[in-house]
């Protein structure tokens, strides 16, 4: 039995788990300048929780404050909050909802998830590395690539912003 399967089938794992935002990060990377450069950034405000009922019944939710986007350049961040990108005045939250999952061997789990940006929801299958922490917490690490236009994140001055965005999350959860 894999270590993720062992963890999920343990009675100690069953219950509600809350995200520790201070130990977690949600970052992104997007090609720009016709692929010659990359813009990297992070969302600085987010929260989440999950529930394990048994080895095959997991669920969870991560809420990200879209206006907390930070690329290190204030003018760019302001533009990203505007209507042609994230439109944070009308759509303040980006959400990831996990509806199920299963062990995938070793320290890896596959999660069935949905991403909602600007009120548009699409599938976000995730391959997640699960790492137990010495203090009883668990770190989930994943990467996914999304097509931003699928979520109506359309801004693209002179064709300089690529359509594919790589999302990277390292999230620590602690049992409630």
Report on this structure.
With 176 residues, this protein is mainly β. Helix content is 8%, strand content 55%. The protein has two helices and twelve strands. It has helices spanning 3-8, 74-81; strands at residues 15-19, 25-32, 37-43, 46-54, 57-65, 69-70, 93-103, 108-117, 120-123, 126-132, 138-147, 161-175. A hairpin with a 5-residue loop joins strand 10 and strand 11 (138-147). The chain starts with a helix and ends with a strand. The mean pLDDT is 90.
Under CATH at level 1, the class stands as Mainly Beta
Largest sheet: 8 strands, antiparallel, barrel
Task: Indicate the low-confidence ranges by residue numbers.
Answer: none
> Whole-Å distance between the termini?
26 Å
CATH H-level name... which superfamily?
A: Lipid/polyisoprenoid-binding, YceI-like
- Count the beta strands: 12
Class derived from helix and strand content: mainly beta
The helix fraction, in percent, is: under 10%
Shape: elongated
Number of separate domains:
1
Q: Beta-sheet strand percentage?
A: over 45%
CATH A-level architecture: Beta Barrel
- In round numbers, the mean pLDDT is 90
Q: What Rg do the Cα atoms give?
A: 17 Å
Order of secondary-structure elements: HEEEEEEHEEEEEE
CATH T-level topology: Lipocalin
Annotation field: number of helices = 2
């Amino acid at each position: 039995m894999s270590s993720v399967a062992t963890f999920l089938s343990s009675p100690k794992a069953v219950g509600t788990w809350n995200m520790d935002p201070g130990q977690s990060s949600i970052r992104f990377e997007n090609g720009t300048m016709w692929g010659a450069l990359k813009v990297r950034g992070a969302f600085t405000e987010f929260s989440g929780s999950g529930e394990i009922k048994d080895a095959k019944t997991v669920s969870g939710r991560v809420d990200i404050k879209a206006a907390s986007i930070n690329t290190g350049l204030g003018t760019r961040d302001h533009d990203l909050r505007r209507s042609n990108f994230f439109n944070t005045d009308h759509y303040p939250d980006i959400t990831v909802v996990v509806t199920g999952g299963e062990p995938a061997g070793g320290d890896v789990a596959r999660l069935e998830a949905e991403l909602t940006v600007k009120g548009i929801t699409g599938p976000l299958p995730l391959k997640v590395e699960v790492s137990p922490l010495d203090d009883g917490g668990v770190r989930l690490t994943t990467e996914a690539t999304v097509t931003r236009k699928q979520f109506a994140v359309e801004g693209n001055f002179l064709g300089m912003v690529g359509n594919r965005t790589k999302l990277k999350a390292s999230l620590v959860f602690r049992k409630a």
